[in-house]
Amino acid sequence: MVTSLDGKRFAEMVIQGANHLAANAKTVDALNVFPVPDGDTGTNMNLTMTSGAKEVQKNVQAHIGAVAASFAKGLLMGARGNSGVILSQLFRGFSKSIETKAHISAKEFAAAFQAGIESAFKAIMKPVEGTILTVAREAAKKGVQTAKTEKDLTAVMEAILGEAKTTLSRTPDMLPVLKEVGVVDSGGQGLVFIYEGFLAELKGEELPDTPSVIPSMDELVNAEHHKHVQDFMRTEDIKYGYCTEIMVRLDRSKPSAKAFSEERFRSDMSRFGDSLLVISDDDIVKVHVHTERPGDVLNYGQQYGSLIKLKVDNMREQHSAIVGETHHALVGENGAEREKKEKKDYGVITVAMGDGIAALFKSIGADVVIEGGQTMNPSTEDILKAIEKANAKQIIILPNNKNIIMASEQAAELAEEKVAIVPSKTVPQGMAALLAFNPGQPLDKNVQAMEEALGRVKSGQVTNAVRDTNIDGISIKKGDYMGIYEGKIVKTSPALLEASGQLLSHMIGAEDEIATVIYGKDVSKEQVGELVSYIETNWPEMEIEVHEGRQPLYSFIFAVE
């Protein structure tokens, strides 16, 4: 029986959880294959978890609060993709609940999982049932129930894992798109692998480093890829309309100042709205919250010291949450301010896969291009480094991939600069948005114009199928070329040019005037010439732009407008 858990034992749990996920990352990726060769939930969760485990290995000690804090820090900075960001938030809340404890009981262990749920749900503005969040929530709830009568941490972890597996099996009933193709949620499956590693360590067992077997793996396809379940909300769906951020310099010497406790501060702030993020050190507290009453947030923060920075954005006006905060000077040991290197007014950061696409983005105004995309989602830390490199007072990020948006938002919340995310999901959308950027306009106007530009371009891609499958009434054979329009497979053919032509026929309408062709590293100049001739023959009035993108995975990327 394990009745008390210290930092050294918890470190071993983290390491075995990370190892077990790593062994099964491809299995999780396979759940995400649609059937294009870019399923990356397992890869993202693995890289995120590995970052957390590495940080733990640097700080193995008996104090579990210190070890958990290291784990949370590693996850936060290494978070990649939506699944990685959610994983980092789960264990951020977990670590905060035990940060002062040298060791914990079964009841405290279960409560920490519940605290993780609260943190993660606050970070996601519109949670969707049937995802990793649902699996984590139901598992944590079972853990709390079990810990009311059970003192053995092993028994509590068994209950948590058991409920996670049960809930995972029910995710197809919660999300119709999962049921359509007979799969479970990939992020939830990754979390189950982590929990299996935790339990094995508590039992003194070692899990094999070979992948687990999931039935009918050859038939699994990615439901998330073509029907994104966390689409951006409509303006009328926004419950709390003001994105409010403050920075408080704590003043403990001031007689009227309240004694600061981050736990109490966070709890009190949570009453004002949702999407709460509180980060503090010895002198400064940073707060991000979505609220209907920004004044209440400011008044509350002022009780603890001086408001040194604040920002309030009307999200209904902007139709998106603009996060970030104004640059502040660093204070030296002698109290004098050390100014950073002077910054330009604007910086634009974008993500691109393929050096040709990267060069194209730079040619139309991007200041920093992060290498990444499908299978290569940049981490929160990668994006923070790009923000620093941009060296600007106001920064706009174009993720160009739905699975990079959340990591971008998380980086924006941690950054000192004023950062806005324009949620581009494809390279053509990113290009259209960047062309709409006007450095002479204020940030909110630019964000509005760039978001409007996203809807004016049609996006298409051609790639190979990696397995046989049937989806949306289309029979697909391994090796076929697939034409994907706005994330949905619409055409397939054994021949590249036939699939490409069919896709363009699906995309181009009577009012369209420009077709942009970006060809990949495995496409020959002869094939490009044949495709251009096809477009000229079928749409003689269409203006054609051709760029060598040298991107992997996708033979062609098309933009039509």
Write the layout of secondary structure elements.
Blueprint: E1 5-6, H1 7-23, H2 25-31, H3 41-57, H4 64-78, H5 81-97, E2 103-104, H6 106-123, H7 132-147, H8 153-174, H9 176-181, H10 186-202, H11 223-226, E3 242-250, H12 262-269, E4 273-280, E5 284-291, H13 294-302, E6 305-314, H14 315-318, E7 330-331, E8 337-338, E9 344-352, H15 355-363, E10 368-371, H16 380-390, E11 392-398, H17 405-414, E12 418-421, H18 427-435, H19 443-454, E13 458-464, E14 469-471, E15 474-476, E16 481-485, E17 488-493, H20 496-507, E18 514-519, H21 525-538, E19 543-548, E20 554-560
Parallel strand pairs: 9-10, 9-11, 11-12, 18-19
Antiparallel strand pairs: 1-2, 3-5, 3-6, 4-5, 7-8, 13-16, 13-20, 14-15, 16-17, 18-20
Helix pairs in contact: 1-3, 1-4, 1-10, 2-3, 2-10, 3-4, 3-5, 4-5, 5-6, 5-17, 6-7, 6-8, 7-8, 7-10, 8-10, 16-17, 18-19, 20-21
Q: Residue share in helices? A: 40-55%
With strands numbered from the N-terminus, the spatial order across the biggest sheet is 17-16-13-20-18-19
Largest sheet: 6 strands, mixed
Question: What distance lies between the first and last C-alpha atoms, to the nearest angstrom?
Answer: 65 Å
By helix and strand content, what is the structural category? alpha+beta
Approximately how much beta-strand content do the residues carry? Answer: 15-25%
Task: Identify the overall geometry.
Answer: globular
